[in-house]
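Need residues for this backbone.
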């Protein structure tokens, strides 16, 4: 397959560590340039990806021959840039949160359908080692009928977290937490949420409860100010329960400058006695699946070439946005909300 000529829009933390090395390391892709108007970030691009051209606009990188772009910019610019790129005939990967509200998400998805271009939300956390482990135990029936899914992104870094452009912890961590719950347990009928407001006026210490159509419930936590983070996952089923405390390390590895070219060691987590399967309260060790962030861009390139589905369907972004909006309304009003009720 001819490599997909893809440009990167933005070279902040996400663009630099989550996108550029994975695009550059995929044989199915060719990183043709980076859109940034920052002199500092242009210098970083040249240092870290020598010979990669920088551009000052989507129109410029499209004119230079890009077939697709990955958008990794402040969250409040995602929808406008996505729609502009689609209007230029470019296939698009858009980082999370895909949009700040469901209406914007629906507009982008409809526009991509009209233009006949591939649009895929960047839900890389579907390929975390910890989530793949849980998903495997659900899919192969080890846990039996799942009744409760508990999932957390918690850390103590109160000076960090999304700024005003990011929309708060609900949209930041919640975009991944909700997406994983929907992947694992399907559509949601009811949402209840609560949060605490940080000094900057944005939400944090978020808790979201989802009632899935199939009968299971998801309990999701997100916080930048949690002194005692809970386990990454606890999943309860009729036959067994699993607790995964180890967190996927692909982000940490990418930050060190090591990418998938590391070979067989990529995505492999060390054994740990804190990850356990419980049957009738008797524990046994669980070996985490290999993390696979490196599979996203090859799948996206094949989708653009018409050789398979996108790694994450665009419609999934709308479903997630509906749940997140229901959670926002619930946290504000104290009521239980049905997703999509305001659509």
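Answer:
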């Amino acid at each position: 397959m001819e490599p997909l000529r893809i440009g990167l829009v933005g070279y902040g933390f996400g663009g630099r560590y989550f996108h550029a090395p994975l695009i550059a390391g995929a044989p199915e892709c060719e990183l043709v340039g980076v859109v940034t108007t920052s002199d500092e970030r242009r210098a970083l691009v040249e240092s870290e990806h020598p010979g990669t051209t920088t551009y000052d606009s989507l129109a410029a990188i499209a004119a230079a021959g890009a077939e697709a772009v990955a958008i990794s910019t402040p969250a409040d610019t995602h929808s406008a840039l996505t729609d502009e790129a689609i209007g230029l005939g470019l296939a698009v990967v858009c980082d999370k949160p895909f949009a700040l509200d469901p209406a914007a998400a629906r507009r982008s998805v409809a526009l991509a359908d009209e233009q006949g271009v591939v649009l895929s939300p960047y839900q890389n956390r579907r390929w975390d080692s910890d989530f793949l482990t849980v998903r495997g135990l659900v899919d192969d029936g080890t846990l039996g009928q799942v009744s409760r899914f508990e999932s957390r992104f918690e850390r103590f870094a109160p000076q960090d977290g999304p700024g005003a452009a990011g929309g708060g912890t609900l949209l930041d961590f919640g975009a991944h937490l909700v997406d994983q719950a929907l992947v694992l347990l399907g559509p949601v009928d009811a949402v209840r949420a609560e949060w605490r407001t940080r000094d900057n006026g944005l939400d944090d210490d978020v808790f979201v409860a989802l009632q899935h159509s199939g009968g299971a419930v998801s309990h999701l936590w997100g916080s930048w100010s949690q002194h005692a983070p809970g386990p990454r996952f606890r999943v309860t089923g009729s036959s067994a329960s699993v607790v995964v405390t180890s967190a996927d390390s692909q982000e940490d590895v990418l930050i060190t400058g090591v990418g998938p070219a590391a070979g067989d060691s990529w995505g492999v987590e060390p054994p740990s006695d804190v990850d356990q399967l419980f049957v009738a309260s008797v524990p046994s060790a669980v070996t985490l699946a290999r993390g696979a962030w490196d599979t996203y861009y090859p799948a996206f390139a094949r989708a653009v070439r018409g050789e398979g589905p996108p790694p994450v369907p665009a419609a999934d972004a709308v479903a997630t946005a509906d749940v997140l909006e229901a959670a926002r309304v619930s946290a504000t009003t104290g009521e239980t909300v049905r997703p999509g009720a305001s659509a």
